[in-house]
Amino acid sequence: MKTIVIGKTKFSGLARVHIENYCCIDGTHQGSRFLESGVEQARKFRAEILEQEILKVDKLDDKFKVYTDVGGEIIAKALILATGVKWNRLGVKGESEFLGRGVSYCVDCDANFFKERKVAVVGGDQRLPAAPSS
Question: Which of 47, 60, 102, 116 could make an S-S bridge to 42, C-beta 3.0–4.6 Å?
C-alpha cells in the first residue's frame, strides 16, 4: 500500500510552539523540530510527503478523489483526516502575555504545574453528556 501525507507543514501552528511533557520526549522541543521528526519518520516508512493543501474531496464509489491547491488529483482507497486543533481563546486581558506563565490550554500536560493552587478551567468537551441535575 502506498501512503501519501498531504499538508503544509511549513505553516503548521505546531511549528510555533514549545513541546514539553510529551511521551518519549526528554526536555523541551521546538514544535518545528517535533514536526520535522514526524516527517522524517513518515519518509523512513516510505510515505510520500506533499507540501500542498487539500481543497476538495469527492467520494467515487469505493474510492476518494482528492484535489489539491497545485492542481493535483489523487485517487485513494482510504483517507485519514487529521485537521488539527485550534485552542479556544477567551480574549481576556493578559491571556496572551501570560501564556505559559499561568495560562495554559492543556489540562493533561500542565496540571502538575498548578498542584495545590487555585485554578479555573474554562470550557470542556462538548461531546460529553450533561451532568445529571440534582
Answer: 47
Residues of the chain with CATH 3.50.50.60: 4-85
pTM beyond 0.70: the answer is no
Homologous superfamily in CATH for domain 4-85: FAD/NAD(P)-binding domain (3.50.50.60)
* Type of residue numbered 13: G
| Catalytic choice (24, 58, 61, 110) | 110
Active site residue 109: yes
Catalytic pick among 58, 62, 106, 125:
106
- How far is it, in rounded angstroms, from Cα 60 to Cα 64? 5
Residues 80 and 125: their CA atoms lie apart, in Å, by 22
